[in-house]
Write a structure and sequence with these properties.
Blueprint lengths: L7 E5 L1 H10 L6 H10 L4 E5 L9 H10 L4 E5 L3 H10 L3 E4 L19 H13 L3 E6 L3 H9 L4 E5 L1 H8 L3 H20 L3 E5 L7 H5 L4 E6 L1 H10 L1 H16 L1
Parallel strand pairs: 1-2, 1-8, 2-3, 3-4, 4-5, 5-6, 6-7, 7-8
Length: about 250
């Protein structure tokens, strides 16, 4: 793999749908947000169809597939229902994530090493259908090795702990977590896995992750949707893009 590849920004639009669903209305429309993100230079759109449909709905996925001119990264749990939906739509990318109904957001990486055989069989039809299969995992060597063995094309490293430690002012621990992310990004790259990263990234935390040369895509959603309340979606994305490019060149 190249030493320093161009860095893409994937915009997660889930929480536009969260606001819409809070009132049971038709607005704000997540597809409109996705198109505005496209116009602002987002390289892809991420949407997580949860089992309980708490934000993105089946109809949203249908409309995104029709409307987008950039790739859709379809986040989903490794269930039979989601498998069938992904095979029907054949999005550019499918990202397998852990999912608990009681959690507010995805709390950790997928446990691949202990479920290797099932996941290998689960992703094979998706890969055969032309989807790039990504696994959302902790920056942990056994999980990365397992992701490579089952035939995933991509690993997305969970940056939530790093971001939480920064927010709590625990800077020594934050720096240790950043070093672990750096080491595991390099390790994943050495196994010919494409490396993405995401979860909890903000203007204050994005640059050290963007500077990791093996990382080729950042997926950011909740912070940008929150910032869009004050700046608008396009200015919020443009500032994130500026910060990413500043350290990546």
């Amino acid at each position: 793999m190249t030493e320093t590849a161009p860095l893409r920004l994937g915009m997660n639009i889930d929480h536009v749908a969260t606001v819409r669903n809070a009132r049971g209305s038709e607005y704000p429309d997540p597809i409109r947000a996705a198109k505005l993100a496209e116009d602002a230079g987002a390289d892809g759109i991420t949407a997580h169809l949860r089992e309980d449909r708490r934000h993105i709905t089946d109809a949203d996925i249908e409309r995104l597939m029709e409307a987008l001119t950039v790739p859709l990264n379809f986040e989903m749990a490794a269930t039979d229902e989601m498998h069938a939906i992904a095979l029907r739509h054949k999005p550019h990318a499918v990202c397998l994530v852990p999912e608990k109904r009681e959690e507010r957001t995805t709390e950790g990486g997928l446990e691949v090493a202990r479920d290797e055989n099932r996941l290998a069989h689960f992703i094979a039809p998706l890969r055969d259908a032309g989807c790039r299969v990504s696994i959302f995992i902790a920056a942990d060597r056994p999980q990365i090795e397992a992701a490579a063995r089952i035939g995933a094309a991509v690993v997305e490293l969970h940056t939530g702990a790093y971001c939480d430690l920064h927010a709590e002012g625990r800077f020594d621990e934050r720096d240790a977590e950043l070093e672990r992310l750096a080491q595991m990004a390099a390790f994943a790259d050495s196994l010919s896995l494409e490396v993405h990263a995401g979860h909890g990234l903000t203007y204050d935390t994005v640059q050290p992750i963007a500077a990791l040369p093996q990382v080729v895509e950042l997926n950011i959603g909740h912070f940008l949707i929150g910032e869009a309340i004050f700046r608008g979606i396009q200015p919020a994305i443009l500032e994130m893009r500026r910060l990413m490019d500043e350290v990546r060149g």
